[in-house]
Design a protein that fits this description.
Elements lengths: L1 E9 L2 H10 L3 E15 L4 H4 L3 E7 L2 E7 L9 E10 L2 H10 L3 E15 L2 E8 L2 E7 L2 H11 L11 H21 L3 H23 L1
Length: 207
C-alpha cells in the first residue's frame, strides 16, 4: 500500500490533544510507549536504496514494517509500506540474524493514536520534540491541518530517524569538541608560566 503523511512540529501536546478532542477526533489509543529498531545488512544496502526495515514494539505487540524509497512530492512524505505482526519476537530476531540483518539504529517515542474521518492522527513525544503526524489522502490532510491551524508551509517530510540521527550527530560533535578543549586549570597554569617567563626576560633586558 502507499502511505502518505506529514509531520507538524507542535509546542504543547496537551493543548493539541485538547483541540483534537474538541473537534470530535476519536481516540484509538491513549498515550503509550514505543520501541523502534531499524534493521539493515552489513553493507547498508537498504539505507543506500532509501528503503527501511523497521521492527516496532508497542506494549505486547510487535510489528515488522518495510518502507520503500520516498516518492517525489513537495509537501508530503509518500512511500510504499507493508506491515505484518510478529508473534514470536525471539524466533524472529534469530531469523533476521541468520539472514544477515542486524539492528543499526534504535529510538523510542511516546504516542497517542486518534482518527478524524479518513485521516489517521498521531501525537508524538520524541527526543527531537513534539509532533503531530497526519496520514491519509493529501486533500484530507490539508483540510484537517487547516482546521487545527496549520498550512503546507508547516509540513515536515523528514522522518524521525533522519531528525534523531541529525540531533545525535550534533550532540556527539559538540561533546567531542568540548572534550578537546583544555581544562580551566591547565589553561590557567600555562598562562601563568608564560607570564613569568615573559616578565623575567623583560627584567633581564632592563638589567
Amino acid at each position: 500500500m502507499i502511505e502518505t503523511e506529514v509531520k507538524i512540529k507542535i509546542s504543547d501536546l496537551k493543548d493539541t490533544r485538547r483541540k483534537l478532542l474538541e473537534m470530535g477526533c476519536q481516540v484509538n489509543r491513549d498515550f503509550y510507549r514505543e520501541w523502534n529498531a531499524l534493521y539493515d545488512y552489513e553493507d547498508g544496502r537498504l539505507e543506500k536504496k532509501q528503503q527501511a526495515l523497521r521492527l516496532r514494539q508497542a506494549g505486547k505487540k510487535v510489528f515488522l514494517t518495510f518502507k520503500g524509497p520516498p516518492l517525489k512530492s513537495r509537501s508530503f512524505k509518500i512511500r510504499q509500506e507493508y506491515e505484518s505482526e510478529i508473534k514470536n519476537l525471539r524466533a524472529f530476531k534469530r531469523i533476521m540474524k541468520e539472514l544477515g540483518l542486524r539492528p543499526v539504529f534504535e529510538y523510542r517515542k511516546k504516542r497517542m493514536l486518534l482518527r478524524m474521518g479518513r485521516v489517521k492522527i498521531c501525537l508524538d513525544e520524541t527526543e527531537v520534540g513534539n509532533f503531530l503526524e497526519l496520514e491519509g489522502k493529501r486533500s484530507d490532510i490539508v483540510k484537517l491541518a487547516a482546521r487545527i491551524g496549520y498550512c503546507r508551509k508547516d509540513f515536515i517530510k523528514l522522518d524521525y530517524v533522519q531528525m534523531i540521527k541529525e540531533k545525535r550527530q550534533k550532540s556527539y560533535l559538540s561533546s567531542s569538541s568540548r572534550s578537546k578543549l583544555p581544562s580551566p586549570s591547565s589553561s590557567s597554569s600555562s598562562f601563568s608560566s608564560g607570564s613569568s617567563s615573559s616578565d623575567s626576560s623583560s627584567n633581564s633586558s632592563v638589567s
